[in-house]
Design a protein that fits this description.
The complex is a heterodimer of chains A (162) and B (210). Chain A is mainly alpha-helical. In chain A, helix 1 packs across helix 2, helix 6 packs across helix 8 and helix 7 crosses helix 8. The longest helix of chain A is centred in the C-terminal third of the chain and has 23 residues. Chain A is globular. Chain B is mainly alpha-helical. Classes of the chains: A mainly alpha (162), B mainly alpha (210). Chains A and B meet through helix 1, helix 2, helix 3, helix 5 and helix 6 of A and helix 1, helix 2, helix 3, helix 4 and helix 5 of B.
Chain lengths: 162, 210
């Protein structure tokens, strides 16, 4: 079972790393949290009963874990403040090549965790149906939420450009 | 930039080298761990506190049992009340740390994100309710016991006097005891304020009419 799990994880590694980057952008513990996601996926793997696609299950567990870690970070105020300070300092030192990435990640970073999860799935080209299944809302509601989040991101990016 | 450009923007942004920090992660080794280092540290700090408070509480209870039971010391009611109050404070401190551990550990990975948010909020509210009810039980029983004993000592309610400084002080202490459960509730709300506000924002976002 472990071999099979590692094989699957290796093929979805890029997605897990993107989730970590989006939720824990420039966080010094990002690598650690990536490990935590792997641990939770492994612990939940016996409950995966092929009722949904593996990727859908993986997204669900990974997003629940990242949101859970984010919550725990909120219980540690000093740590959170430090990472925010660090975030601002390093963003000003960025090279122009990654400026585009920085702006987008900064904009997404201002969203609620649940908004981050929805927009991430949308940006990763998931269908409304799949997003609805992972998040647990209706398909039509998903469309409305995505539109709202997109407007917010555009607004944040617009404000930053001004 | 328009809304439709966002996906393209995202793909371009991710095409830039990630400066991969994850290559050092050994998946096989990671799977043998219970938690990552950062989370483990937080959890072991809380467990250490629980252990410390519990140990103090056990020592305190043993000393009291030894003094009152084995040595048969005849302590005054005021001294006994003070000791009982110290013991209750330790109980509250221990339960508060156990609550924190419960909040930090229980997870619901396989649920949908929305159901997981609801599950966590319910758990947080349950922890607050259990704390509130148990503290009402502890402190209100203690207040009733103190009041009963004091009134018995001075020979009934008719002998209570506002002019007696000790009686006024005792009244203040009893009122404080009665208020402690609400203080604990306030402490819980204050400690988890950020969590509650985040959960409420998320729920509001998910449940608002489309």
């Amino acid at each position: 079972m472990e071999k099979e799990f590692i094989r699957l994880i290796n093929s979805y590694q890029g997605i897990l790393q993107k989730i970590c980057n989006i939720f824990f952008y420039r966080n010094p513990n990002r690598e650690d949290y990536y490990q935590e996601i792997l641990i939770r996926l492994w612990k939940s793997y016996p409950d995966f009963k092929n009722q949904s696609a593996f990727s859908t299950w993986l997204y669900r567990v990974a997003l629940n874990t990242t949101i859970d870690i984010s919550r725990k970070q909120r219980l540690l105020p000093i740590h959170t403040e430090l990472s925010k300070i660090e975030y601002n300092i390093s963003s000003s030192e960025d090279n122009p090549e990654s400026d585009q990435k920085t702006k987008l990640y900064q904009a997404i970073n201002q969203l609620l965790d649940i908004e981050k999860a929805i927009i991430f799935l949308y940006l990763e080209d998931y269908s409304y149906k799949e997003i609805a299944e992972i998040i647990g809302i209706s398909e039509s509601n998903t469309g409305v939420k995505i539109n709202r989040i997109k407007s917010r991101i555009i607004k944040i990016l617009g404000n930053e450009q001004k | 930039m328009s809304k439709n450009d966002l996906k393209m923007f995202w793909q371009d942004a991710n095409a830039i080298d990630q400066g991969d920090i994850y290559t050092n992660v050994d998946i096989r080794k990671t799977l043998k761990m219970n938690h990552c280092k950062a989370i483990s540290k937080v959890l072991s700090d809380i467990k250490l506190k629980i252990f410390g408070y519990s140990l103090m509480l056990i020592i305190f209870v043993c000393l009291m049992a030894y003094a009152l039971g084995y040595l048969g010391l005849n302590l005054s009611k005021n001294t006994l009340s003070l000791f009982a109050f110290v013991g209750l404070c330790m109980v509250i401190k221990t339960t508060s740390e156990i609550d924190r551990l419960l909040v930090m550990t229980d997870t619901s990975n396989n649920l949908s994100v929305k159901a997981s948010i609801q599950y966590f909020q319910k758990k947080l509210i349950r922890v607050r309710r259990v704390d509130f009810i148990s503290s009402i039980f502890y402190f209100h029983s203690f207040a009733i016991w103190s009041t009963y004993n004091y009134i018995k000592d001075i020979g009934g309610v008719q002998n209570l006097s506002w002019g007696n400084a000790f009686q006024v002080l005792l009244l203040v202490v009893i009122l404080m005891l009665l208020l402690i459960p609400w203080l604990i509730k306030y402490q819980h709300n204050h400690r988890y304020k950020k969590l509650y506000s985040d959960l409420n924002d998320s729920k509001e976002f998910l449940f608002e009419a489309t």
